[in-house]
Amino acid sequence: MSTPSGKPALVTPPMAQLTAAQVVTGLTGAGYTCGKDSTYAICESGPISVWVLTGKHKRVPVVSLHSIGKVDQAHAAIAKDLPKALETAHVNEVWLVADWFGKQAGKTATKTTIGDWKVDLSAEADSEEPGVHLTLTDKFCTANCQAE
Prior knowledge:
The chain is of the alpha+beta class. It has helices at residues 20-29, 71-88, 94-102, and strands at 33-36, 40-45, 48-53, 62-68, 109-114, 117-124, 131-138.
C-alpha cells in the first residue's frame, strides 16, 4: 500500500518505539537545537519548533510541530520539515501524516486519526502569534498524555 505521493503508507519494517528522551537525542542528532520547558522538550531548527512531551512513557506520547508567521508560510515550513521530524520520532505513519497535512493547506482547524496517532491541526491568522500547529498524540496513551 502506498500514499498518493507514491511513498509507502507505513515505514517497513516498522521503526522501534522511542521514549521522549530518545526522540530528543535523535532530533539533536538531526540538527535541531533542543532545550526543556517544564513538561516539554522544545527542539528548534529554522522556522520550526518540535515539542516533545517528556515523562516516563514507553513511547513518546505527544509530538507537536509549530511554526510562527503567516499561515501559508508556516504551513509550508512544517510540510518541509514534517517527514524528518516524524521519522526521527519513529512515527511509522510518517508518509500518511505528511500526505494528510499537505491536503490541509488553508484550513484553520481539523483533526483525524492516522494509525496509532490522533492528529490535530490548527492555524491562527489573527492572533498575537499567528502560525500553524500540528500535534500528534498517541491514541493508546492513558496517563500524563495531554498536549498543551
